[in-house]
Write a structure and sequence with these properties.
The chain has 178 residues and is an all-alpha fold. The chain contains eleven helices and no strands.
Length: 178
C-alpha cells in the first residue's frame, strides 16, 4: 500500500519542488516492500527516484533505470506508458553519459512503447526527451521549434506545468545555441 501511495505522489513532489521529500517516501516504500511482490510498483518507484533533479539526474541514476526496465520486461504485460518513460529517461541518461548509440536505441524503444500505450501526454514527454538527447550533439539541428510544439501539446492536454518546463528548456537551449 505504501509503495502505491508513494508512487502516486511522485508528480506532486516533482511539480511542487519537493523532490527530496518524494525521494524519501519512495525509498522508504521500496525498503518496506517485499522483493518480487509488485514489479510494476517497484519499477514505478525506481523511476520516480530518478526524477526531480534535472536531466543530469538520469545519468547519475542509470542503475535504477536499468532495474526498472528489467522489472518491466519481466512482467507478462508491462504498462506501456511506464515502459515508455523508463526507456526515455534512460535514453537521456545514456546520452549525457556519452553513450549516444545506446541512447538512440532506448529512444526508439520509448517511442514504440509510447505509441503502443496511446497516451498523448507520454508521447509528448518522449518527444521532448528525444529533443533533449539531440541537444547533447552540437551538430544536431536546433530543437527550439519542436519544443514549442511539444509545449503547445501539453497546453492542449491541460498540463500547464509541463508546458512551462518545456518552454523553459526551449529557452535555455536557444540561449546555449545562440
Amino acid at each position: 500500500m505504501i509503495l502505491r501511495l508513494a508512487t502516486g505522489l511522485t508528480d506532486f513532489f516533482a511539480y511542487f519542488g519537493r523532490a527530496q521529500e518524494g525521494h524519501a517516501w519512495l525509498t522508504a516504500a521500496l525498503d518496506g516492500s517485499v522483493e518480487g511482490s509488485d514489479p510494476l510498483g517497484r519499477a514505478s518507484a525506481l523511476i520516480g527516484l530518478t526524477r526531480g533533479g534535472g536531466l543530469a539526474r538520469f545519468a547519475t541514476h542509470l542503475p535504477l533505470l536499468d532495474q526498472a526496465i528489467g522489472l518491466l520486461e519481466s512482467t507478462d504485460s508491462p504498462e506501456k506508458s511506464l515502459t515508455a518513460m523508463a526507456y526515455a529517461f534512460r535514453s537521456v541518461g545514456r546520452a549525457w553519459s556519452g553513450l549516444r548509440a545506446d541512447a538512440l536505441s532506448d529512444l526508439s524503444a520509448a517511442t514504440a512503447a509510447a505509441q503502443a500505450g496511446s497516451s498523448p501526454w507520454v508521447d509528448a514527454n518522449v518527444r521532448q526527451l528525444g529533443m533533449a538527447i539531440d541537444s547533447t550533439d552540437a551538430t544536431s539541428p536546433d530543437a527550439t521549434d519542436g519544443l514549442i510544439e511539444v509545449a503547445e501539446t501539453f497546453t492542449a492536454l491541460g498540463d500547464a506545468h509541463a508546458a512551462v518546463v518545456t518552454l523553459r528548456f526551449a529557452l535555455g537551449l536557444s540561449r546555449v545555441r545562440g
